[in-house]
From TrEMBL:
Keywords: G-protein coupled receptor, Membrane, Receptor, Transducer, Transmembrane, Transmembrane helix
Species, as recorded: Capitella teleta
Subcellular location per the Swiss-Prot or TrEMBL entry: Membrane
Transmembrane segments: 50-77, 89-107, 127-147, 168-194, 214-243, 269-291
Name of protein: G-protein coupled receptors family 1 profile domain-containing protein
GO MF annotation terms: G protein-coupled receptor activity
Amino acid sequence: MGDKRKKVWQQGRIHVLRGEIPDCRDIEVDQGRMNETTATAFLFYKHPEYYQTVIIGDYCIGPLGVILNGVCAYILWICRKPLSAQKTLLFFVCGNNLLMCSYGLPFTAFDQQSPEVKQANFCTFHAFVYFLLQSYGLLVLLMVTLNRYFVVVRPTSKRFTFGGPKRTIIIALIGLFLLVIFFLPAALGIWGVLGHELSTGSCVLVSQEEGGDLSYNLLGSALAFGLPVTAMLLCYLHIYVVVRRQNRKVLQGNSFGTNKEQQRRKQELRLLTTTFGMIVLFIAAYLPYVLVISFPNLRKVVVLKGLSRILPGTHCLSDPVLCLLSQNTYRLKLKRMVHCGKEIERDDGSSVTAQATH
């Protein structure tokens, strides 16, 4: 880009030194080509590494995510009794991921195939639903974290608890309602813009350079990503300290029922580890997007821009896998589905005969 500007300037300077009048049409042609190149350089959908990453990634993650989350939801359903707050929240995780994989990601890939022509109202609607699902996925993970925190750190508290399934559903729906309220100003164009971003050819939260509002985008990154992630990390750090302390006390004791208590603490630590892994993968998936939306200098890096579009959807694959690995019961049911009619081994060393579930 700089070499072309320098070449045009040098050509004009040579003409002047020779006492000649340069042909303005030639200079205009060179400048027109230069402007065309400048505009095309930051139309991300014209770069194969961006376009192919978004198309292939969304089309692959969508169907695979439907299968994994469908299996996870089915196993949660057959293991639902007794229905707890934790299982209820995991149902919300699977449901949100199923909507993202069946609508959000496939339509994003389909929409990317016609980057220049958009139907304004539907583009705004899709951006609204897409970002609502993405933000709600993180909010539900925050609720899962808080539920584990209350159970482990404050097990006897009546105030700090999600209570039963009905109360948990109400809390989850209130969180969804608050997110809808937050995204409405951008959908209506009052504050921030949800719509067609020319540089990517996608229906997204528009950046400041293309008519969006930087303050809204930064606030959204802080509320929908920064605060939940910080809260989850602090909660899990405290949970880890409490569980380690309790395990140390159990190992030092010789009272009746110590083995049973050790098994319970081991299960709690395993559940803590898998859920924490879910959070870490979610952070890794969303970090490129947060960097792109928060720092203007990084928005023109084609590879980073492509990763910021495709990585957020990968949590739809990791969530059900970690969920099924979190408890012995879920793993046993999964083994029964895979090894129908065969003898399978429990984690405690005993074996059972797998039967097909109808």
